[in-house]
Amino acid sequence: MDNLYRSSDEKVVAGVCAGLAHKFDCNANGLRCVVVLVTLFLSGIPLFVYAAMWMILKERPTAGGVIDV
Q: How many Å apart are CA 32 and CA 34, to the nearest integer?
């Protein structure tokens, strides 16, 4: 999981979706919608994956409050 972090500035819940969207260069809101839909169809199983990623991934490092874009 090199270079995969939770977002600290674009987060809605924990920053996992925003971090994944940044890593894979896609829209964070679109990814959030996909996660919600998949969670509804799979009876909440992805919530456990989300929670695990929340605990495992570190927050994205910033240099003195300045975020590298």
A: 5
Q: Give the side-chain half-sphere CA count within 13 A for 48.
A: 4
Answer whether residue 69 is part of any domain.
no
Query: 13: domain range?
Result: 1-60
How many structural domains does the chain have?
Answer: 1
Q: What is the pLDDT of residues 6-38, one digit of tens each?
A: 777 777 788 888 888 888 888 989 988 998 899
Total count of residues recorded for the chain: 69
Residue 12 inside a domain? The answer is yes
Q: Is 5 helix (H, G, I), strand (E, B) or coil?
A: coil
Q: Which of 62, 63, 64 is nearest to 8 (CA)?
A: 62
Distance CA 62, CA 11 (A): 15
| Rounded (10°) angle between helices 16-23 and 45-56 | 80
